[in-house]
Design a protein that fits this description.
Layout lengths: L9 H7 L10 H8 L9 H4 L7 H9 L3 H11 L3 H7 L6 H4 L12 H14 L14 E5 L3 H12 L3 E5 L8 H4 L8 H12 L4 E4 L10 H7 L2 E4 L5 E2 L12 E3 H11 L9 E5 L3 H12 L4 E5 L11 H9 L3 E3 L2 E9 L2 E15 L5 E13 L2 E4 L3 E2 L2 H6 L4 E2 L2 E2 L12 E3 L2 H4 L4 H18 L4
Parallel strand pairs: 1-2, 1-4, 2-3, 4-17, 6-13, 7-8, 7-13, 8-9
Antiparallel strand pairs: 5-14, 10-11, 11-12, 15-16
Helix pairs in contact: 2-4, 4-5, 4-8, 5-8, 6-8, 9-18, 13-14, 14-15
């Protein structure tokens, strides 16, 4: 069957893409959960948060009905705390570190409590920060994603005038365009961006692309400092025969189209193969199933023990009915009348550890074939090699090299987030933005 769209009714789409981690329904429910917290001294949950949110403090503030203070405690460390409460892999961060795990009890629902406070702040538009007077310094930021927004907010609070240049028509970066719609909606992302910008002193120029509409050199001439938060880069190609057939697309584009164009407008096949096992692969697979695909098969070249996604994310895909084939790698895509019809895979075994420390997959020479009408590639992303080369930025395999967390080889130019770390979590990008802002303020001699 050919790839089609608009398979389901409006109600079915709404049900399939409803909030996968719903908030507390009542204040009492939040208070009951908050009062479970032991408020540990030297709390491991706080240590495991990349942005260093004082978890015991914000939960204690909830128990005393100081929700505004709780929101401030979160936002002072993580201005995207509302979004992170929905998308963070808390099972391997704060909640995974909760002492209740060692007591064979359920960990504190830190993410839901964080969502309780931060979304109340957004809903009521609480003004939790005051800007210092303008100090005459001007900073340009490239990218209105988590790193750029985090950096901008810290700088604005310090009295710096900030201009963000964003290639898309909306801010939020990965949050807006690259995460499954059942985790965060586009409307939520827009509200979060607007809340961050409401501090003032931050001007966003949309539909402006580095290397096309402006250059790094032009920003250096017009601003006192520049921060690059340009993201991780482009979808990695499989480099196998048949990759250009109709029905083959990358997961980033697939998810982008769902986020940008709506559920009913996105074509999906009956029999979908997803290549990869990272968070993006999971998001692509689960959303293909929720868009109406009859069968979704995930193909991964290593074993389950080496999977890059969390077990919780994999469980979502399995509960949605997605199937997994371990130790398999795409070898060739076969088509009929220029449309994908089969995916030929090589059977793999694990050999010696590679550069990542994981055992490298080795082709056994055996193959098998899947009948498919759509292939979604989620084999990672490649950095913007040409962009960083043209700007004469020092890099390693396309990832910008920085010193002290944010300082590039070009004086007055700083960088952070996925363009530096190669693609980590949203919360890591938020911390990178904070590190960048601190380095810029030091460079500008602003206290």
């Amino acid at each position: 069957m050919a790839i089609t769209n608009n398979r389901l009714t409006v109600d079915q789409y709404a049900e399939n893409f409803s909030d996968i981690h719903p908030p507390f329904e009542t204040k009492d429910a939040a208070l009951t959960e908050a009062n479970r917290c032991l408020f540990c001294y030297d709390a491991p949950c706080m240590k495991s948060c990349p942005t260093g949110i004082d978890v015991p403090k914000f939960i204690k503030q909830i128990t005393t009905d100081n929700v505004k203070g709780s929101a401030h405690t979160i936002f002072v460390s993580n201005i995207l705390g509302a979004g992170c409460s929905r998308v963070c892999p808390v099972e391997k961060l704060c909640e995974g570190a909760c002492v209740y795990n060692f007591m064979e009890e359920a960990p504190i629902q830190i993410a839901r409590l964080q969502r309780y406070s931060t979304e109340k702040a957004m809903e009521l538009n609480w003004k939790l920060f005051e800007r210092k007077p303008l100090n005459g310094k001007r900073v340009a930021i490239v990218g209105a994603g988590p790193a750029g927004l985090s950096c901008a907010h810290v700088l604005a609070r310090a009295g710096v005038e900030v201009t963000i240049f964003e290639k898309e028509s909306k801010g939020g970066g990965l949050m807006t365009y690259g995460i499954a719609a059942y985790k965060v909606t586009p409307a939520f992302c827009e509200n979060e961006v607007n809340y961050i910008l409401s501090i003032g002193g931050i001007n966003v120029q949309y539909n402006q692309t580095l290397g096309k509409d402006f250059s790094l050199e032009s920003l250096q001439q017009s601003y006192d400092a520049v921060y690059l938060g340009i993201g991780v880069g482009l979808a990695r190609q499989l480099n196998i025969p048949g990759e250009q057939l109709t029905g083959v697309e990358d997961a980033i584009t697939f998810i982008y189209n769902i986020r940008n164009n709506g559920f009913a407008s996105v074509p999906v096949g009956d029999r979908v193969a997803v290549i990869g096992m990272g968070m993006t692969a999971i998001d692509a697979a689960t959303q293909a199933k929720r868009l109406g695909a009859k069968k979704v098969t995930m193909v991964y070249r290593r074993t389950e023990n080496e999977k890059p996604c969390t077990q919780e994310e994999l469980d979502i895909a399995l509960l949605d009915g997605c199937e997994v084939i371990w130790l398999a790698a795409p070898k060739e895509i076969i088509g009929e009348q220029n449309r994908v019809s089969k995916l030929v895979c090589s059977k793999m075994i694990l050999g010696e550890p590679d550069a990542s420390g994981r055992r490298a997959p080795v082709d056994t020479g055996e193959t098998f074939t899947l009948e498919v009408d759509m292939v979604i590639k989620a084999a990672g992303q490649t950095p913007y090699y040409s962009l960083v080369n043209d700007a004469q930025l020092q890099h390693q395999d396309g990832k910008i090299k920085v010193d002290h967390g944010a300082i590039t080889n070009i004086r007055g130019v700083f960088a952070g987030g996925d363009c530096v770390n190669g693609g980590k979590e949203v919360v890591d990008a938020v911390q990178a933005g904070k590190d960048g802002a601190a380095a810029i303020l030091d460079y500008l001699n602003v206290s």
